[in-house]
Amino acid sequence: MAAVLERSLVEICGFGREAERRFREVTVSPGVNTPPGGLKFADSAGAFHYDESGKLLSVTSNRFIHWWTSADTVQLVEESLDTNLLNNAIRLKFSCCSVLPGGVTIQETLNNIIILICTNQTVHRLVLPHPARMYRSELVTECHMQSIFTDVMKLDLQDPTHFATIPGCMGQTAVPGAVAAWLSLHGDAHFALASPAGGITVVTLPPYDSQGSVSVVELKRSSMMSRLSGWMPTAIRGEQSPPDLVLSLAVREEEEDSLIFALCQDHRLRMWSLTEQTCLLEANMLEYMPASKGVRRLSGQGHHLRLAFSSRTGLCLCVYLAVPQRGQFIVLQLVGTDNNRYSLEHISSLFSTQEALVDFTLTTTDVWALWMDESNSAVVKYIDFEHNTAGQWNQVFVQPPPEEEVHVGVDLDPRETYLELLFSPLRFTASAIVRALQIFRRGSERILDPSWENLKKEVTQAVESELQSSVTEFEFSQEEYRQLQVEFWSRFYSCCLQYQEVESTPLGLTVSHHTGMACLLRKGFVSFLLPCFAVDHLYLSYDQYLLFEEDTPISDDPDVARDVLQLVRTLRLVSDAVSAEMAYEMEKALEYLQTPPERAAELVLENMMCNDRDGVIEDIQNKLQDIRNPMAAMMALLRELDLETDSDLGGAGPVAPGLSVRMSLSQLYGSSCAVSIVCQAVCHMAMTRAQFCRDLLILQKLYLHFGDNVFLGGGAQLLQLQQDLIPRTSHLLSSYHLLKHISQNLSSSVPMDTIDVNLQHLTALELSDTPSVSTGRSVLNPQTVLELFYQTAARRIIISQIFSQQHTDSLLLWNNMISNVVQLLAQLLWPSNPGFQFPECLMANCQYTQLQDYVRLIGPWCQVNIGSCCFVLAQCYLAHGEGQKALRCFQEAATEVEKEEFLMKLTGTEDEEAAASPRLQYYNKVLRLLEDMSLPELIIQLASLALAEADDDVHCQAALWTRIFKHHLDLGHNSEAYEALTQNPDTSMQLDCLRQLVVVLCERSQLQDLVRFPYMNLHNEVVGIIESRARGLDLLTHNYYELLYAFHITRHNYRKAGTVMFEFGMRLGREVRTRLGLQKQVNCYLAALNCLRLIRPEYAWIVQPVSGSTYERPGASPKRTSDGEFSAEPTAGRRQVDILELHDLEKDYFLSRARLTLAQHHPPSAAIAGSVSAPELVLLLAQTGLFDSALSLSRIFKLDLSPVFDTLTFKCIQLQSGGEEHQSEAWSWLAANQLSVVNTKESSATDEAWRLLASYLDRYPSTNGQHHHHVIHKLLSHGIPLPDWLLQSYKCLDAPSLLRLLLNFDRLEMAAELVLEYVDAVLGRGHQYFGIERPLSATSPPAWLPYTAIDQLLLALSETQTQSSLHNKVRDKLAEYHNVVQQTTERRLGAQRQVAS
Questions:
Q1: How far is CA 1152 from CA 195, 1055, 1073, 1081, 1188, in A?
Q2: DSSP string covering 257-299, please?
Q3: Which residues lie below 8 Å from residue 1262, measured CB to CB, with a gap of 6+?
Q4: Between the chain's N and C termini, which has fewer beta carbons within 10 Å?
Q5: Which intervals hold domain NUP160 helical (predicted)?
Q6: Could you tell me what percentage of the chain is helix, strand and coil, using 3-state DSSP and rounding each to the nearest 5?
């Protein structure tokens, strides 16, 4: 329901918590001397409000200037409730002068702000730019704005055109407060001062933008004379009687004249015309005072005068006659006639019993007054001077000073208790604490870091140091130490109280004529007067204000209103009867939730009744009997106390039409000052109403105790009280205690990186449009969580709500606006309202500790937003690393997703989530959050819970199982990941998971797990995935082929295992041209061979993939040729298939092993060895000296061995003709070959090489000694003598071929010798050396000789003269042979004839 306002006001202290306001100091030296025995003037204060301060679209909206004067100093501060003003505080010091009380006046022109200052010796004028002229654009978008004092340091305040010296000795006897200053319509600055001997002196400065001189005019009854400067001699001037001494001045500027009103010591009011310098009106104020005979003889020393003008009432005057015990305000209206004659019309006379008037002000409807009572506390009242009830003043409940005695609970630490009191927002200014700290330290050392947190540390250190230094004993009990703590902390607290009392000294009162904003100007700060709500007014008012039913607007029924008043008066008795100890126990029950409020109230009541020595309970019982219908009265009060509302406070309201309007609304009540005022007002409301509810709850328990003795209605009302009203009161008490806690709980400073991380988390929840995090927060001004909420979220909501119901052109009337803001802010905080903006703001600003405290306080009794509270509590647990607690809270919040507005925001808006249930959408958002925070264990648990909600949603089930799989896999839970994979109902997602499982386990080298999984119904998919990965990735960095091999081996599929390893080896040969690649290839082929040998021979074969682009060029596109064109599609049904059997694999294996051998002995050849054919490889091996390998490879591939023998022969030739270098090199390749004969004698490399050659010729025989032929041919071609063993060996194999070789190379002697020996062998002499089994005989097979070669030899010998002897020998030997042949032939023929015959 809407709040009901009373006419009473409550003071809200607007002091900031900075250690000291940063004033920029300006010293003005007017060139005067300090007067001897000068008067000391009291401190004063005042304020100026801009004309357009009530207009929303104005730059000066909610903007004003206030000042304090003390001795020679004026402190001016410009404040704004909308924006924070920069450079807004200056301190002016006037050398050798004292500023007169009331001597500061500020006026506004179209382009300037003019400040007029009057001291006891000089007058000054400061011309500053108007705020509307300081900004080029109409739109001021900054959250900070420059003050008009920004450029004050550039002003020349010693300029003669802006100051003047008051002539004569008037300053030494000036009348305090009898001064007025104003601007004429022509721009002249007038200063009116009371003359010491009576009359008025007016000093005039010409307009600042024109030439002119200072003029001084004296207004007095005896003569009308003026001078340009100086005072007339006394003899010429004459003397006035002291009763005519002016006590107070006021001025009204008319079009062509200035009317100066002077209230004099003789109780008369005189009105002077400055233009005519005549007294136009004189009236005796005692005529308006009843029974004034005794007053006439008294001189009025404390009279004051104020003016107010409005178009409705004209010019009104208010005169305060300071008469002991009979102070009176007289409100008069000035009435003028055409012939320049004036009269006063009496409007009202107002009386007050207060004595020490400090200040008062007059508005067009009210008189506002400020007094100080006997305890130096401020007393503020106001009254409508036209319409009031029996002259009754309206109350202003000023802020009481902090309590003098601090109750420290037995279970509390004294230090924490005092620190909480000292640094809570409502009690002490930081400057008071700083000064108390300096005194407590007995020094004036300055605090270098004035931040709030550092100040708390400094105070703690100072008190603890003082305590430690006073301790003389080394041991004492804990109770004694606690007493010492209380003693020293109370001493420091007393210092703070004294300085806070000085800071709180009231100096002035100001009320804006445009907005109605009233401020109390105290010495150290400004406080604001806010309208008091009806229920607060009833509880705070004195009994004399609660006499009539009309005094309460809560009920229109006079009977109920009378009962309400009686009930409130009874509540005050209850409040007075509650001791400090019991109040603390009640507070503790609410804060720590130890006992329900109802039970705590019963304990307080029991204590009251046990300690009732003054008959308070009886007095309460008597008052209760006067209440006719207590149920109705209580229900009326409870309705007013309850802030529950059905309206939507979270809506943004209609959008303002213009950008300027929107910008102004975005700043309205957004300054630090306004934030402090609004939040302290909510705090004051909460504290007042919490105490109200406490007392009401105790009173209700007392009703139950009295029973029928006070209830006229009997048992029915008692039942209603017990079952309805007491629970409602208890609920309200807890709610207001919560508001009080929020308004006093300080927020925590958060590092920017934490804020950034939190913003990422909110984005994951799609809550990033939550009001932005407060930036630029002053470290000197720590915010309460309420201030943080108001700044970041609540103010925007509240202003939108207000201006959705009123036009932006309407005036910003203070009472209406501020009461609406406070009421709406309290409703936003009210836990029973559906809005959840406050906890959401705490979550967005990382205030996790405060948020946990909030949820703790509302948990036992609030049934609204239960799920939302669980959700934000889960966020707190996550921030503090308590994952399991967070999970439980997330689960509890899920049950309320479809019921609470905040949780509804967590239901997805994306297309894929549109079909899911709200609870599943909620789970998805939370899972995203947990993924963003990298909490896989919690994700698995929450996703498992969410599966229960997705029974009918296959898509959601698949997504959840995929999440579970992913995070199990991340955690290394391979078996669980596989299980989740198999449970996934979506085939495509299942394959994705399967692919990820394979890749991750391979990267982790957890191949055993990968191979051992059964893969039911997924066997082919696994193989396909591993094959595709194997064929698509680098061979050396990934071992997918080996994995696939192990996979098939485990399942005893040896042929596929062999196929995999063969493919692996084939790719290694093409793509990895390194020694390591060759080694792997050998192993692969060997593994493939082993696999095929394990199966039956008829199945020992594999299919070789068609050689294509995939294998011909590593990394080549499978779709395009090397020219970039699309490759032709293979003809369907005609794909070529190559079948490789075991012997084919063996060939590839031996070939690869030979390549590896080559690469091992000659690393540079590794790059080419992988692609060479077998014949090429044989040559490379032979050239490298690996003859064993070359010969073996040649035999396997059935290649000619001649190249090997050629190469080895050449190496022997090189060794035989080379030096030591060739010898040393030869041993390396000789060692790589296996010698058939081990020679124990020392031999050279040449010998070993020849021996190796000989062994190969023996080991690898050839048809007709072809290998020998190649060797001998090589040797002969290089001119190398033939070794005997070689000749002997070849003679046995093919002597004719040897003969032809010798002839080819002109080795005639050797040829001749060979012929001779060969003929002898045929004839039977040494035939075994030529491989002739049976020499020439009649019984042996026919023998033959190479006659062609022999003929060539004979011819060659015959042509050579030196070889004639050899020629003859050969001829003779042939002749001998022929003879034997003839004889043998004849015997053979004879034998045949005999046989034939």
A1: 125, 21, 12, 7, 15
A2: -EEEEEEETTSEEEEEETTTTEEEEEEEGGGGSTT-HHHHTS-
A3: 1201, 1268
A4: C
A5: 557-789
A6: 50, 15, 35
pLDDT-based confidence at residue 283 (cuts at 50, 70, 90):
very high
Q: CA 60 to CA 81: how far, in whole Å?
A: 10
The more confident residue out of 346 and 1029 is 346
State how far Cα 696 lies from the chain centre: 45
Dist. CA 1109–CA 20, nearest whole Å: 82
Residue whose C-alpha is closest to residue 677's, from 800, 784, 522: 784
Tell me which residue of 393, 389, 387 sits closest to 352, measured CA to CA.
393
The residue count of the chain comes to: 1397
How many of the other CB atoms lie within 10 Å of CB of 825? 26
Tens-digit pLDDT profile for residues 144-194 = 788 999 888 888 888 888 889 988 755 455 566 789 999 998 889 999 998
HEC string for 360-389: EEECCCEEEEEEECCCCCEEEEEEECCCCC
- Cα three-residue angle 967-904-748, rounded to 5 degrees: 75
Q: What is the pLDDT of residue 234?
A: 37
Cα separation, 22 vs 1155, in Å, equals 88
Q: Helices 1364-1396 and 1347-1358: crossing angle, nearest 10°? A: 150
Amino acid at 746: L
CA distances from 583 to 406, 680, 683, 695 (A): 12, 22, 18, 10
CB-side neighbour CA atoms (13 Å) of 533: 25
- 1350 CB neighbour count, 10 Å cutoff: 23
- List C-alpha distances in Å: 118 to 174, 229, 306: 11, 17, 18
H or E segment to which residue 330 belongs: strand 328-336
pTM of the model: 0.79
Residue 1097: both structure tokens together: 């021979």
Residue 869 above 90 pLDDT?
Answer: yes
Chain-centroid distance of CA 1055 in Å reads 60
Torsion, Cα of 270, 273, 279, 282 (10° steps): -30
- d(CA 204, CA 463) in angstroms, rounded, equals 56
Name the amino acid, one letter, at 118: C
- CA distances to 349, 760, 829, 841 from 754, rounded to whole Å, are 64, 10, 26, 15
Q: What is the DSSP letter of 178?
A: -
* Sign of the CA dihedral running 429, 432, 436, 438: positive
Taking alpha carbons only, the member of 542, 623, 610 closest to residue 581 is 610
String of b and e for 1378-1395 (b: at least 16 CB within 10 Å)? eebbeebeeeeeeeeeee
- The bridge status of strand 5-13 relative to strand 394-397 is parallel
What's the per-residue H, E or C state across 72-111? CEEEEEEEECCCEEECCEEEEEECCCCEEEEEEEEEECCC
Residue with tokens 């004034």: 292
CA distance 1260 to 1266: 10
What are the structure tokens assigned to 840, written together? 């959401």
Report residue 194 as tokens. 């009371």
Tell me how far apart the alpha carbons of residues 187 and 189 are, in angstroms, rounded to a whole number: 6
- Asked whether the beta carbons of 1078 and 1155 are under 8 A apart, the reply is yes
Q: In this structure, what token pair is assigned to residue 1328? A: 């075994």
The answer to whether residue 1134 scores a pLDDT higher than 70 is no
User: Alpha-carbon distance 619 to 617, whole Å?
Assistant: 5
Q: Are 741 and 682 in contact (CB under 8 A)?
A: no
Q: Are 1293 and 1264 spatial neighbours (Cβ–Cβ below 8 Å)?
A: yes
- Residues with Cβ within 8 Å of 1161's Cβ and at least 6 positions away in sequence, in order, are 1184, 1185, 1186, 1229, 1232
- From CA 238, how far away is CA 1342, in angstroms rounded? 187
